[in-house]
From TrEMBL:
Localization in the cell: Mitochondrion
Chief location of this protein within or outside the cell: mitochondrion
GO cellular component: mitochondrion
Protein name (Swiss-Prot/TrEMBL): LYR motif-containing protein 2
Keyword Transit peptide: yes
Membership in a protein family: Belongs to the complex I LYR family.
Keyword Hydrolase: no
Function field: Involved in efficient integration of the N-module into mitochondrial respiratory chain complex I.
Pfam family, one: Complex1_LYR
């Protein structure tokens, strides 16, 4: 298999890694969409920076079990934020 431009020099992802990557991206997008409900722009920007920093902190994680744990934690935290922090519109 010939590497594409996007992954030259990087090994191909396994199916599990590919699926987990998609789950992480989906979770990140959900968090960012949730911040749209914050009416105060400086607070919204601060929350987005916090979310970005949190996701960046674990960017190099490669252990599939650890990634599953992190995704589960992110999901629980998202549900808490969604139900308690922001009003549902």
């Amino acid at each position: 298999m010939t590497p594409t431009r996007a992954n030259k020099g990087q090994p191909a992802l396994s199916l599990q890694q590919f699926i987990q990557r998609g789950q992480v991206i989906l979770m990140y997008r959900k968090y960012m969409r949730l911040t749209k409900q914050i009416p105060d722009k400086p607070s919204r920007r601060e929350m987005r920076e916090w979310i970005r920093g949190d996701f960046d902190r674990y960017r190099s994680e490669s252990d599939p079990r650890r990634i599953e744990v992190l995704l589960a934690q992110a999901s629980r935290q998202y549900k808490n934020m969604e139900s308690g922090m922001f009003p549902i519109q």
